[in-house]
Amino acid sequence: MSPRKNRRDAEDRRSVGGSWSGGLQNTEEGPDGAWVIRTIPPANATKPYRCPGCDQEIPPGVGHMVAWRADERSADDRRHWHRACWQARLRRAPRTQRSRGAPRY
């Protein structure tokens, strides 16, 4: 039995969307519009970011993804997401910010 192949070939990477700084970039269509998605590998994740999906910090050294609307050109509109949070974004309700002592109803 041969060992499982965990890495993609360079040919597979080109078919997904090309590489950028060791990560992959492609366009994704969804019910919320067209998005450009860029994968950031752990080696290139050098700064902490706040994930808009779970409102938790993405520490340096953790692979994640950056997403922005395909029609936007500004770097200010890019958001860094955990992969699982990005995939679950359409299933989540809008996040409500409450004060510490506020009731939950």
From TrEMBL:
It comes from the Bacteria. Residues 1-34 are annotated as: Disordered. This is ATP/GTP-binding protein. It comes from Actinomadura alba.
